[in-house]
Amino acid sequence: MTAAETRTSTTATHASAPTPAVHVAGLDRVFTSKQGSVTALSGVDLDVAPGEFVSLIGPSGCGKSTLLRLIGDLDQATSGTLEVFGKRARQARLDQDYGIAFQQAGLLPWRTVAKNIELPLALHKVGKADREARVRELVELIGLGDFAGSYPDQLSGGMQQRVAIARALAERPRLLLMDEPFGALDEMTRERMQNELVRISAETGAAVVFVTHSIPEAVFLSDRVVVMSPRPGRIVDVVDVRLPGTGRDDALREDQAFFDAVAAVREALHGAPPPAARGVENR
Amino acid sequence: MTAAETRTSTTATHASAPTPAVHVAGLDRVFTSKQGSVTALSGVDLDVAPGEFVSLIGPSGCGKSTLLRLIGDLDQATSGTLEVFGKRARQARLDQDYGIAFQQAGLLPWRTVAKNIELPLALHKVGKADREARVRELVELIGLGDFAGSYPDQLSGGMQQRVAIARALAERPRLLLMDEPFGALDEMTRERMQNELVRISAETGAAVVFVTHSIPEAVFLSDRVVVMSPRPGRIVDVVDVRLPGTGRDDALREDQAFFDAVAAVREALHGAPPPAARGVENR
Amino acid sequence: MTRVRSWGLGLLGLVVLGVVWEVYKAVGPDAGVKLGDRLVLPRTSDRAMPHLWDIASRLTEPALGRSGAPLWEVVGQACLFTLKIAAIGWVVGVVVGLLLALLMQRFRLAEAAVLPWVVLSQTVPLIAIAPLVRRWGSQLRIGSWAWDSQDSVAVIAAYLAFFPVAVGMLRGLKAPDATHLDLMRTYGVGWRTTLLRLRLPASVPFLLPALRLAAAAAVIGTVVAEVSIGLRGGIGRLVIEYAQAAGGDPAKPWAPILGAIVVGLVAAGFVALLGLSLKTYRRGEVGA
Amino acid sequence: MTATAEAPAPVDGVPAGTPTVPSRVLAPGRSALTVAAPIALGVVLVGLWQLLVTALDIDPYVVPAPSAILAELGDNLGSVTSGALHTGANALLGLVIGTVVAVVAAVLASVVKVLDSLAAPVVAALSVMPIVALAPVLYTLYGASVETARVLVAALAVLIPVYVNTLRGLRQTRAVHRDLMRAYAATPAQQQWAVTLPTAAPYLFTGLRIASSLAVISALVAEYFGGPIGGLGKSITSAASSSNYPLAWAYVLGAIVLGLVFYCVALLVERVATRHQPGATT
Amino acid sequence: APGASASGSGEASLTPVKLQLQWVAQAQFAGYYAALDQGYYKEQGLDVSIVEGGPDIVPQDVLSAGDVDYAISWVPKVLGSIEKGAKITNVAQIFERSGTTQISFKSKGITSPADLKGKNVGSWGYGNEWELFAGMQKAGVAVGDIKLVQQAFDMNGFLAGDIDAAQAMTYNEYAQVLESENPDTGQLYTPADLNVISWNDVGTNMLQDAIWANSEKLSSDTAYQDQTTKFIKASIKGWVYARDNAQAAADVVTNAGSQLGKSHQLWQTNEVNKLIWPSTSGGIGMISDVAWSRTVGIAKGTKNETGATIISADPPETAKNMTYVEKALTELKSEGVDVEGKGFTPVTVTLEKGGA
Ligand SMILES: Nc1ncnc2c1ncn2[C@@H]1O[C@H](COP(=O)(O)OP(=O)(O)OP(=O)(O)O)[C@@H](O)[C@H]1O
Ligand SMILES: Nc1ncnc2c1ncn2[C@@H]1O[C@H](COP(=O)(O)OP(=O)(O)OP(=O)(O)O)[C@@H](O)[C@H]1O
Ligand SMILES: Cc1ncc(C[n+]2csc(CCO)c2C)c(N)n1
Ligand SMILES: [Mg+2]
Ligand SMILES: [Mg+2]
């Protein structure tokens, strides 16, 4: 109980850094259709510092994807402020300030692994030599050096997802947007990918906004976990889960602090305090 | 450690009941294709007692689905013994001794909810009045009384899955075969469905063979968890997870015994003992 | 609302086409536009491109021939005649196509052996078979019923119509998910019940476009066969006969062309209606 | 004209956790079967045909014997080949023109939605109209002593299946790919090249396969309505009109082979194009 | 089909007979339609149905196949079929002259076959091309010297100038041109605008429309022999009617379902009459030996574009048999019918635009 309390800060007051990677204030998104209107997001405030890892968690339909898409300028807010590195989202998109990965790997099936990773570079007219060097670097990073010439249909789901992540990293974005990128993976691959993402994000120093359904995943990866509630989608809680001095390695998964953080998020998510102090993901 | 040890029985010695619901001995399944041959299952022994709830867990490709399909006579073993209620699998299938549910709900899109549930009854020439009574009973059971006339595309994924389960139950089978039936559901729906399945299986007294990727799910639902390993697919461990006197309700999810069982399965699955006594599902 | 809009745009499209026709006719050289020594844009003489209003007014003038009826009426009669034969051909083609699809679905060997020949059958030029069918048919006589040229034309129509049905229906019959097939197997039901309860309903989204293509094919086959064997009464025969007047009466040959389009659209419309009655079985379809 | 059944559009995005098992695993020896079975059936049927004709002494104008057809084919191989080249050239040119126009039109219609609606009635009319009925007016429009009208008949026959299929393909762009291109701030042209067109390619090639043998038949039937001599169509009719049925059928055989060559080449191209796109089309 | 059959309900005694035409209903076949309309066939105890042809219908093969009892076809086309095994016999040579011409606009300066060299020359094919080839051969023009274009059902290719010299039947395509407007003058074309090469003048004319019968049945079936005489007799009466009542005969054909315009139909009737009358061979239906041997000679000696000839040897004796027509003519003469038409004078026909 106390653990949960101390770690839960009800407002997102992390705007101390000069320009936040993401600055969201009073953001609303209402979808109107023939059937009526759905308030997907209502009054969302959030700041993500450069290099910070923030997860969005919440039940299905609470607006996680919508928020991510707004940040990526793949969708327009109904009202509110949204800045990415101090610019308008559209400008940030045109400046290629972020990389993005979706739940489905979304590789182009007619391009090889290398060509898929190369895609954003090719589109932005990066020179051939630079492109090739970067691709070589990235396929090694994701451990698919031997598969550079393979086509997506020759890869397993997990391998495809790794390629998608490499593609998102290709232009060394300062911000990574990831929408349940590991949703389709089996448990073991997922765990490996998590470790890899931790390594990559640490190496590149990019800020990450990460959408997930899994509490342990959010806790394992993040500095802060943003807990959302549906209809209308709003932020109900932001849980600080990074204890100073804890590395995000496999040992963490078995650590008491980890279980406590999971419990805290679980509590924030389900609204009521759990019967026991240790919350646990139930799948 | 000790907890794990006491609960782990390395052989499946539950054949004390008169005729087991499922009796598998020395089962092999080898797929041969142009590319070569894959040993999907090798030397699998398993008995499931009537009314018992057994989960199969293991990494992707370890042969869980294959084993289930063999039991359901949807596929033929390469060698070994397989009996369902003391009969050959084919006979059991023709006698409609089991009901089956797949990962995808697999409803017929052109039939309403009621008509989908009614399908097996209609195919087996159950009288109209009986059919209607049974369908009414089942839609209530799954809490979709108001949706009997709806078409599958008008239901959410979770609702569809419930219909599929009702369909599997329609003929009151003594054995339920379920292949990751909740795989596509979000966490909360999934939890609800688990509770419902527990209730249903208790009410009907059917034996259940349940395939899942999720350790907590397996532990929550089952009497025993069968842990498998891939290439060749074999049973590496069978973990007794039902403590006498524990009910499978929401409280269990937060119980110490539950965490211990999860840890035991996790250990069996990953091969090495975890650094701490409490294993935890990491997604 | 959107329906009104799309109809409006469709009509506008026709108007645009008409305007393009007339404008090109007005500005284009009589001898057409050449690129090198190949004509790329057509001639614009009145003989090659009659004014649209001339085509329209020609329709209201007498067709010549016995009745003295206006051209549109004569062409309309021919449309009905052609439509009737095409309908017979369509039905026969659909039945044959369905049977072939069932055979191929049921027996893998049949599929392997027959399918290539089904494809091959469509590479045989109709003009080669039309007179043959007439000749073979004329040997047939069952009781008081004797084969006549109309039957030959219907057979030709069926020859074209069966193809899309056989191919489309085969795909449709194979369309059910593996899960659904497994399900039927767990119910211990045989091929027939699986066919009735699963394969046939699941094939509807494939069957309907196939039926529409078959309808178009049946009309095409009917017209070509009518031309080939000179069967009197239909659009095809008018194509030949009105061509003879093309020099002195340039608008006239366009009349049977319009007639052919009308017949095709009516046939396609009929299949669309059929599709409405099978709506329940198309729920699985993603917005087309 | 004829186009093979359209499938309902593939579902956008494969559901997560699709089974690890390929839905249909090729049994060993199946590919041998696909070659041997049709040949066996063909041999049986042609044998039966030959037997019936010889046994019943059937006149050639009822049905010529396969042996007679082959004999004529042997004697007139040069003429059949040159006829096939003549007709094949028209068909090929028509196929190319029709495909290019259809693809350009489909791209325009997919980008500018209004064009699609505007074209709808014309497409509907063309797709049900016997193109051959247009042949006489096309000869008048483009001249009776050149091949143009025949090429156009073939092109028109090709137009509809390729247009309809390509347009459907252009609409299959997956949402995730669209988002991706937007995230890359790709220009519309880049989006077309990188995603939209490659996604549509298998559909285009399916249309092309349907159109391939259609182009041959159409070019051939167009000869019927006039134009320079030398093609297979004219040869078939003139052989038949002088009661030389075995020769007529030798030309028909040439037409069949030509149609099959077009079909098989298109099929091959389609296979290659669809190689890495699971569950694309037909 | 209207006018196709004359069978009445109470006349079971009539023998059903089918006649296969070479083309669709038009005045080219006026005599047969007139005979049907005037009840001449019925008088002979025949219930005749007329079967129309079409582009791909080969009348002589329909006859060989036994689908019909008689067929109308051109002699050179049939000679080829006979050599290919068709067992049929010319029992009445209705047309004495050839109606085939090669027409061109005056401006092209094509007045003789020799002028065809280097030109786009139209022909329908389908066995209609042999007189042209013979004429060219006679004038020393090789097939390779011209560009041969298959002519369509219409004359637009000619009118547009794509075809320099087009094949035209005097009774049909020639009239089609004269029914068309000259865009330069806004008036219909006139004969003065055209040069006409008639194969009758060149001397390479071949025998055209004849009545053909089944050789085997003729040789064995006495009822068929008898019926043949009756059929020829009634047909000739029909042709005599068409000669003496051109307008009425034209109307009969129009009523039988022909889509041709009135003036065109009358023109065709008149021109066809000119091909028959006056008969110089001893009566309509008789073949002059000169014409026959010329036809056979050309059939053996003329090569088409593929180098083939129609026939390689003389036709069998059974290719023609004048017994029946002679008998019919004798009977008709005794009935006072003018079967030679020595005094035949064609009518004057004014063609209207579009043949209306
Ligand atoms: N394009 C749209 N049109 C209409 N409603 C939409 C649209 N996109 C999202 N919504 C609605 O907005 C809400 C939030 O959707 P969103 O996809 O952001 O949820 P989510 O949190 O990502 O859910 P999940 O975990 O299932 O992915 C939902 O109610 C959804 O129905
Ligand atoms: N029909 C088949 N033909 C060939 N190989 C097959 C076939 N079915 C299954 N296999 C192989 O057998 C192995 C076991 O497959 P199975 O589907 O049973 O795994 P699973 O444990 O259910 O995996 P998942 O958790 O991914 O569903 C896999 O390696 C698979 O590729
Ligand atoms: C394909 C074909 N095209 C044109 C004609 C034209 N033709 C040649 S002779 C003749 C008059 C007597 O029938 C006519 C109209 C034909 N027969 N076959
Ligand atoms: Mg989402
Ligand atoms: Mg499985």
Mean pLDDT of chain E: 92
Q: Based on CA inertia axes, which overall geometry of chain C fits?
A: globular
Mean pLDDT of chain C: 89
How large is the share of residues in beta strands of chain C? under 5%
Largest interface: C-D, 85 and 69 residues
Q: How much of the residues of chain E is beta strand, in percent? A: 5-15%
CATH architecture of chain C: Orthogonal Bundle
What's the alpha carbon Rg of chain E, rounded to whole Å? 20 Å
First and last CA, distance of chain E: 24 Å
Give the CATH topology of chain C. MetI-like fold
CATH class label of chain C: Mainly Alpha
- Output the helix-strand order of chain E: EHHEHEHEEEHEHEHEHEHHHHHH
Count helical runs of chain E: 14
Terminus-to-terminus distance of chain C: 19 Å
Low-confidence stretches of chain E: 1-10
Number of strands of chain E: 10
Global structural class of chain E:
alpha/beta
Organism (chains A, B): Microlunatus flavus
Keywords (chains A, B): ATP-binding, Nucleotide-binding, Transport
Pfam family, one (chains A, B): ABC_tran
Protein name (chains A, B): NitT/TauT family transport system ATP-binding protein
Description:
The complex is a heteropentamer, with 2 copies of chain A (283 residues), 1 copy of chain C (288 residues), 1 copy of chain D (282 residues) and 1 copy of chain E (356 residues). With 283 residues, chain A is an alpha/beta fold. Chain A has 2 domains: 27-97 and 173-283, Rossmann fold (3-Layer(aba) Sandwich), CATH 3.40.50.300; 108-172, no CATH class. Chain A has helices spanning 2-7, 64-71, 89-94, 113-123, 128-141, 157-169, 187-204, 215-221, 256-270, and strands spanning 8-9, 22-33, 36-48, 53-57, 79-84, 87-88, 98-101, 175-179, 207-211, 224-229, 234-240. In chain A, helix 8 (215-221) packs across helix 9. Chain A is globular, with a radius of gyration of 19 Å. In chain A, 50% of the residues are buried. Mean pLDDT of chain A is 82; it is low at 1-15 and 273-283. With 282 residues, chain D is an all-alpha fold. Chain D has a single domain (66-273), classed as MetI-like fold (Orthogonal Bundle), CATH 1.10.3720. Chain E has 14 helices and 10 strands. In chain E, helix 1 packs across helix 10 (222-244). Chain E is globular, with a radius of gyration of 20 Å. Classes of the chains: A alpha/beta (283), C mainly alpha (288), D mainly alpha (282), E alpha/beta (356). Chains in contact: A-B, A-D, B-C, B-D, C-D, C-E, D-E. Chain B binds chain C through residues 69, 72-74, 93-96, 98-100, 102, 104, 106, 108-110, 119-120, 123-124, 151-153, and chain C through 177, 179-180, 182-183, 185-189, 193, 197-198, 201-202, 204, 280-284. One adenosine-5'-triphosphate sits between chains B (31, 33, 38, 40, 58, 60-66, 233) and D (20-21, 25).
